[in-house]
Amino acid sequence: MSITLAIPLLKKAPFGKIITITSDMGSLGLATDPTSMFSKIIAFLYQASKTALNAMVVSYSKELKDTNITSNAVNPGMTATDLMDKKAFEANGAKTVEQGAARAIELALDPKNELNGTFTSDQGPEPW
Fold it and tell me: What global pTM score does this model have?
């Protein structure tokens, strides 16, 4: 896995960051909460891949907790990208790509490097 190969380089830096882009659909908490709209969506492959990605973030955060490297998953929320009908998504309130990337950029540039092992969005940490 490419992250594992990068860890020696990240350890040489003043601080290292593993930041992945996830989704509400990867949250087991939201998927099992009957009041959440995500408990009603069935998209096996997408949900499974995002849940696996989230588990990887947690594993790296634990494995690297005594190092200068943090590991976090960022949920950009509904974002209009080229993978879909961008105009239709924008008409329904989706963020622009720039807006969706804001939290990941904020984490990447944070000099404190204290947040570790989180599933986070613009509103802060969310349930895994």
Answer: 0.88
